[in-house]
Structure formats: C-alpha cells, structure tokens
Amino acid sequence: MTTALSTRFTDRFQLSTPVALAPMALASGGALASATARAGALGLVGGGYGDLAWTQREYTLALSAMGTGRIGCGFITWKLDEDASALDWVLHLPPEDRPRALMLSFGDPRPYAARIAKAGCTLICQIQRLEQAPLALEAGADIIVAQGVEAGGHGMNALNGRATLTFVPELADWLSAHSPDTLLLAAGGIADGRTLAAALVLGADGALVGSRLWATTESLAPEGAKTQAVHTDGDGTARSAVFDILRRKNWPAPYDFRAIRNELHRTWEERIDALRAAPEAARAAYDAGVAAGDYRFAHATVGEAVGLVHDVPDAATVLQQMHTEAQQRLGER
Fold first, then answer.
1. Do 45 and 140 fall into the same domain?
2. So what's the pLDDT on residue 67?
3. Bridge partner residues of 184 (DSSP)
4. Would the pTM of this model clear 0.70, i.e. be above it?
5. Fewer CB within 10 Å, N side or C side of the chain?
6. Are strands 101-105 and 43-48 parallel, antiparallel or unpaired?
7. Domain-located, residue 210
8. CA 160 from centre of chain
C-alpha cells in the first residue's frame, strides 16, 4: 500500500490500513488471514466454535505464509466456556508464534483475560451495547469492537442491538471519558472506502471487516454462497434464529444470525417457535441444500453490506481499493 491511513490502531500493529479481518468461523482461515496481513491489515483467524484441529491447521497455515507480526485469532466466548482447548493451544505456542491479538465475542471475557495477558497477546473484546463496555474494560480489553446489527453472522438481535452509525460515536465518547487509551474498532456495514472513512470520522480507530473479505478468493466460504452474495442487494438479508436452529447451534439469547434471506429462511422466519418445536423436516431440507450447494436452502453468511459486494477479488485488491477510496473521501473533507 501507499501512504498509510494512520491511526492508533495502525500504529499499534504497524499496519498501513486501519482494518482487521473479522474472525469469521469457517471462513477466515489461514489463507485469508495471511493475505489480509500481507496487504497491511490485521489478519484474525476465525477460531469460532473452538475446534482444536481446525484452529491448529488454519493458524499454522497463516503463520507459515506470513509470520506473527499481523496475525491473530478470534473465538466465541460462550463456546470457550464449554471447551477452551483451542485457546489453550494458541496461548501455549512458543512466544514468537503466539497471536499478536486475541478477539473474544459473545460472552464474559474475564475468565480468559489473565491467560491472554500472561501470553503477551492484545485482548480485543467485541460488544453490541454500551452497557457491555465496563465488563470489557474490567477484563482488560486493549481494543473494543462496536458491532452494529448490520453485521453478517452472529450479533445482537433486533430488539436489543444497535446501529453502527450511532453506536460507534457514543462508545467513542464513553471511552474518551472512561478509558481514553482503549482503542475502538467499528463493525457492521463496512465494506468499501466510503464506509471505512465514515467509521474513522465517527471516532473509531479502525474497522473490523467481515462480509467484504468473506467474498474474496482466499475466503473458505463456499463458492456458491459467494456467487449468491454477489447477486444479492442490501435488502436481501435477515437476522433471526432460523439458521442456528437448522444448523443445530444452541446460541444463547439475545444473539442471533444474519444471512441471506433465502427460500428456506422465508418459510420459517415468522414461525420460529414452530421450527424449534419440530425442526426435523426443515433440517433435512437444509442439510440436503448444503450437500448439493443449493443456496435456496443452504445459508450464505453476509450482512447488510452485501449490497456493496459486486465481485469476488483477492483480499489485497479489496483492501487496496478500500484504502485508496478512504484516503480520497477523507481528503475531500
């Protein structure tokens, strides 16, 4: 990249662009994390549900392609409460191979904070409401991610969630008053240079980018899902519990899942209780869709920013375009 968009976040990790790859479970593998890092952003491997073998394979791949300078890992916190073996594995690597940053989302980070700090890793905590910020600070978060409901995949449900546009500046003001050294990343709806520039103007030190980097050649997302995303606009996603039920994922309230609103989702989105009570037929349709690559029934995990996704380039191209456009937009102010 050319001239850096310098922020506290880029300074901390020696980045040229203020972006971190969202650690998307089963999509942000070693190839995408390392490609993101080589392009000057922070690459977070999607440790997700804490599968030890998957984390070992993909994190090792990221290291072999890039080294640890800009590589980290992310986990679903409530799943760590059930099995923290993958987290333990990355924390017990030799110091030179440990993640530069570890991101925890969807649960209480405090039981893991001391281990992460002892290992010398930067702690990133993702939150969805202002009331969660004190807990993240109590855990010792160096960076807080403000995730809006626009985001793809898991996030706060519509009843309790916040919009990125209002959440980020409010949290920026709160951190300025209560913990000015804590960095802030914006997440949800950020997929091009305009939206990256907007996040910086709102007071963030950078952005956590999911959907736009999900739709890249290095992403582990299925090709059929990426193709469906390219042909879907921002009206075409929905946030609900449907795909968690179909995938047998027992997510706790108040979190649910945003994906493309396909035929199977529309069948059940207004009958959630009925789906919970008798999911067998719908799960069979979903499983068959996954096996066949039929995205009328299988899910494609993207957020409202899918309307800004028109192709599937490599990650470096995405980040270069975001960087250049953000510079231009900020230069016009």
1. yes
2. 59
3. 144
4. yes
5. C
6. unpaired
7. yes
8. 19
